[in-house]
Amino acid sequence: MIALLLVLLLALALFGLGFAVKLLWWVALFVLVVWLIGFVARSVDGAGSRSRWYRW
Q: How far, in whole angstroms, is CA 16 from its chain's centroid?
């Protein structure tokens, strides 16, 4: 009985971890897209200035 509960708990933990990792991949992809849009928008602004599009 305890072994069955441990296996069930392990399966639940791995499912949760898999969901979290997949969610983090989507977040990383979103951040990459936002960065690329900012990079492209900065490089085609035509002002010729060396300003950055981000405020770090």
A: 17
27 lies in which domain range?
1-41
CB 39 within 8 A of CB 53: yes
Instruction: Express each pLDDT in 5-19 by its tens digit.
Output: 898 888 888 888 888
**Radius of gyration over every alpha carbon of the chain, rounded to an integer in angstroms:** 22
The model's pTM: 0.59
> Is position 50 within any domain?
no
Reported as type and span, the H/E element at residue 37 is helix 2-43
Q: Is residue 13 part of a domain?
A: yes
Domains of the chain: total = 1
DSSP 56: -
